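Any chance you could type out a protein's amino acid sequence plus the matching backbone structure tokens because I've never seen that pairing?

——
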Amino acid sequence: MSVAFAADGGAGGGRALIVPGSQLQGEPYFYRLSESPDGKGVGRIEMVRPNGHVFGTLTLDRYRPIEGSSQLFPRLLVFAVFDEAGGTAASISYSVTKMRLNAPVDQSVFRVPFEKARMVIDEDAHSFLKHPSLPQSTSSRQEPN
């Protein structure tokens, strides 16, 4: 059974939620989720060893609404990992400039031309119209309407 509980926010201050983690390189860790400064979302997720050493963080910032939703989403995500001394070993940042939720997608995006398809199945007739093991003359039928 997983257990989560509230605690202090660690280096970020404020409130935090502690949730079970896993093991990495044979050592256990847990997650500490801290709220954003405005208190409206998660501001940081830390990967913490039982001795308190934070070895990785995901910082979530610049929450804004997005098209298609009333929810706020972070526009800046920074993932960092730390060495044993607490210094930054590596860091990567993602900046989201445009985000849409449930945006309409034209069906033509998913259409594969008959000649480019490896296999084509007629589900109504329960047969292959094109298949690598069929003779070339059989698999060169025209695309169904």
In short: DSSP finds one helix and nine strands in the chain. The helical segments are 136-139.
